[in-house]
Structure formats: C-alpha cells, structure tokens
C-alpha cells in the first residue's frame, strides 16, 4: 500500500477505534472481510491446513492466525504482537458530580497518561455497556457518542500565576470533565447511556444499564501535517499504529507460511489480566493449534515473535534525553529496541534477523537504547518471551509525545513497518 493510502487507512482505523473494544471489533471486521473465519473459545475447533482464523477475548483482545500450507507449521510460526489499549480517562462506577451549577463525571486515569494535554480538548465518550434486556437477559454493546460532549477547562493564568513554572495536576480534583449544566433532579448517567444505546442499537431493547467500561477521547481526527506532509499526528498512535500495520501486513502476505497476529489489552497497566499479554490467551490458542505439548514446544522454538510498540524519537528540544548514538529519527524507519536489563526482549540474534529483514525489504532501520542514567519502559515483548519461551525482537515506529492525548510520528514510517512485517510474514527461513 502506498504511503498516502497507508496513512489514510490508518487514520480511518484510529478514528473508528476510540477504545480497545472498538479497535478489536474493527480488526475483526477487516479480517472477516478478508476471508478469515471467526472462532469461539467455548466451541470445538476444526482447524484445517491453509485455514485462516480469528478469535477474540473480552471483546478487547484478538488473535488472528493462518495455518499455512500442509506441514509448514512444524517449521515454526511468524508472530507479531501489539496492544489495543492507550492511556486515557475512564469513567468511575458512580460518576455523577454537581458542582457550581455544572454536571461533571468523576474519572480514573488509566495507564501512564500525560495529563496536561487533556485540558481544553473537545472530548467524547465511548466503550462497552452491559445491560439487562426487557426479556431479562444480560447483553453488552459498544457505544460511541462521537460528537464532542465534554471538556476539561484549564484554570485561567490570572488565577494561577505560577502555572508556567510547573503544573501539578491532581487527577481526583482537576480532571473531572464538564458535560452540561446541572439540572434538578440530578441527571442520571445510566439513563443517558440507555438513551445512547437505544439510538445506536435500536434492536437491543435495554431495560436497565447495569455496568460499563467507558473512556473519554479526543474528537480531533488524525491528520498528515507539516509543510511537506512529513508528519502524522493522532490520538492512540501508541499502539493502534502497530495493530494496523501488523494487520495490513498479515492481509498482504501470501498465506503460504504459518503466521499469527496478537493484539492484547491492558499493556499500559502491566498486561496482567485474562486478555492481557501476561495472561493465558496466546498460550490457550497455541495449545489448540498444536494440541501435542512436545510438538508445540518444538514449533515455538522454531518461531519468532516481533513485538511491535512505538519507540521514542529524539526530540529536537530535548535531545539530551537520549543516548548520543541511539536517538531514533522520524521517517528513518522502524526502531530495534534493546535493553540489557530485559525491559525489551531483543537479543543479538533477533536484532540481526530483523535488521536483515529490513535490508531485504529495502527499509531503513534504527536502534534505540535508553540513556544509562534513565529508567526504561517496557512492552509485551518480555512478557510474551517469558511466558512462551519464544525468541523475540522488540521494534516500533519512532514517535513524539508518547502517552499524550495526541502523538506524532513520521508520515513514512507506518508504510516502512508494514513493508518489513509483510516480508516477515512471507519469510521462508526463521533463524
């Protein structure tokens, strides 16, 4: 796919995926349209050579895999992992707040969010709602208000003269968004959700909203920006960009080789959940792909995992935050991420393998090592490597403002990563 069409498709995907639930649904829809068969973990599976399948868990994590031609699975599987979640503001269970004649919702910060950029943005609300139907059954649906319905206003500088000397944000008191003027009697948030359900899903016949997992998000759409269109800016680039590029690569591959895409939830909070990378989801699926435990271990030991998660580009205003020789640049290709303390799972062998793939795909490649006097973030790479024992390389597209409400990448890098991941899925030789 050409660079401009890649970015437009990425923009459409991110705009339609304000939460991990929506991202997973959009991934599944694209896979189904491409001929993949959806499986249910509660059913028996009848997997066939050459078959293409997908399965979801919790509605927020997805695994898609193709079996390859007969006998090829014994020689190993090409796996790419990413995550569907991003730092955000989540609505609390009893959120209603009436203050100074205004109606607000109490929030909880999900993940390691940069909080300052959340002020003065046009926010909407989306996620999963669970309800009782008129027939007494429990059901869940996704909702997305789409339009701006909330804002977190900044305090005027006249009332906070030292704000530019350092902003100390209290998540409990400073971040509850304003949605409306307060009414008497007090507004009922669950009634509001019931009305939204009826609007988006007139067939669901909701009697009572029982619970929800809802996130605020920025309504500003993704954009290609810059005098020469050099940059791509959007919410949730970390890590929907990796989910999208890996999906596009899987769909563009020949289907001849065994290949798998895993996109899991809860990476931003440690991955420890039933549907996170530190849970059993991937292991459960692989145990059904190859039921024999010895053959499964042999297959895993012949496989490679590419953990795709965004990398820190060297910021021109803060270049001293990078190691001098390891400052990845925008539009200079994917980054191999290395850490001796195993915050990344890359080894010399897997780094060499990915570097060679980039050379074969005619894609530039870079390296990132955190400064020795700074702490290092992590990814699903070490988690997956330690659970499966699979050889892993951590890579990602370089970005600015990671964990902000709006992040920035190079406009050429998504196409670069798609190109090399497609090469990976079609590679015949695994080290």
Question: Can you list the strand order of the major beta sheet?
Answer: 1-2-3-13-4-14-18-16-17
What is the CATH third-level topology name of the largest domain? Aminopeptidase
Helix content: 25-40%
CATH H level of the largest domain: which superfamily? Zn peptidases
Shape type: globular
Number of strands: 20
Largest beta-sheet details: 9 strands, mixed
Radius of gyration from CA coordinates: 22 Å
CATH class of the largest domain: Alpha Beta
Secondary-structure element string: HHEEEEEEEEEHEEEHEHHEEEHEHEEEH
Describe what is shown at a glance.
The chain is α/β, with parallel strands linked by helices. The protein contains 9 helices and 20 strands. It is 25% helix and 27% strand.
Report on the structure:
- With 431 residues, the chain is an alpha/beta fold.
- The protein has helices at residues 3-15, 20-33, 189-200, 237-252, 281-289, 293-301, 348-360, 380-388, 413-426; strands at residues 37-38, 52-57, 61-66, 78-83, 88-99, 102-110, 123-133, 138-144, 178-181, 206-218, 223-225, 231-234, 259-264, 304-308, 311-312, 335-337, 366-368, 391-396, 398-400, 407-410.
- It has a 9-stranded mixed sheet, with helices on both faces.
Structure keywords:
single chain; 431 residues; alpha/beta; Aminopeptidase; Aminopeptidase i, Domain 2; 2 domains; 9-stranded mixed beta sheet; 6-stranded antiparallel beta sheet; 20 strands; 27% strand
């Amino acid at each position: 796919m050409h660079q401009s069409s890649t970015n437009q498709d990425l923009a459409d995907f991110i705009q339609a995926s304000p939460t991990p639930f929506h991202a997973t649904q959009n991934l599944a829809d694209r896979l189904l349209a491409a001929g993949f068969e959806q499986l249910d973990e509660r059913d028996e599976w009848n997997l066939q050579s050459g078959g293409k399948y997908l399965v979801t868990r919790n509605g927020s994590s997805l695994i898609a895999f193709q079996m390859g031609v007969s006998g090829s699975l014994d020689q190993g599987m090409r796996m790419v992992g990413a995550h569907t979640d991003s730092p955000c503001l989540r609505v609390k269970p009893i959120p209603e707040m009436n203050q100074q004649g205004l109606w607000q919702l109490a929030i909880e910060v999900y993940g390691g969010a940069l909080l300052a950029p959340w002020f003065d943005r046009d926010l909407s609300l989306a996620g999963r709602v669970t309800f009782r139907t008129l027939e007494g059954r429990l059901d869940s649906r996704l909702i997305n208000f789409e339009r701006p319905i909330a804002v977190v206003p900044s305090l005027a500088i006249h009332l906070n003269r030292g704000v530019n000397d350092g902003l100390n944000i209290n998540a409990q008191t400073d971040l509850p968004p304003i949605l409306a003027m307060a009414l008497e009697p007090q507004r009922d948030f669950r009634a509001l959700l019931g009305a939204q359900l009826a609007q988006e899903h007139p067939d669901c016949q909701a009697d009572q909203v029982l619970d929800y997992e809802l996130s605020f998000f920025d309504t500003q759409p993704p954009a290609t920006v810059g005098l020469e269109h050099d940059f791509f800016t959007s919410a949730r680039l970390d890590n929907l960009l990796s989910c999208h590029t890996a999906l596009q690569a899987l769909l563009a591959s020949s289907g001849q080789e065994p290949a798998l895409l895993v996109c899991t939830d809860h990476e931003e909070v440690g991955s420890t959940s039933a549907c996170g990378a530190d849970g059993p989801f991937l292991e459960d699926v692989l145990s059904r792909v190859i039921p024999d435990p010895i053959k499964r271990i042999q297959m895993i030991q012949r496989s490679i995992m590419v953990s795709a998660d965004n990398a820190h580009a060297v910021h021109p205003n803060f270049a001293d935050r990078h190691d001098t020789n390891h400052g990845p640049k925008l539009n200079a290709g994917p980054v191999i991420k290395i850490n001796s303390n195993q915050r990344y799972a890359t080894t010399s062998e897997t780094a060499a393998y990915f570097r060679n793939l980039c050379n074969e795909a005619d894609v530039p490649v870079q390296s990132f090592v955190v400064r020795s006097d700074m702490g290092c973030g992590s990814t699903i790479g070490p988690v997956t490597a330690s659970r499966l024992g699979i050889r892993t390389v951590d890579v990602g597209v370089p970005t600015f403002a990671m964990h902000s409400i709006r992040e920035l990448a190079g406009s050429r890098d998504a196409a670069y990563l798609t190109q090399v991941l497609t090469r990976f899925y079609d590679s015949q030789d695994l080290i």
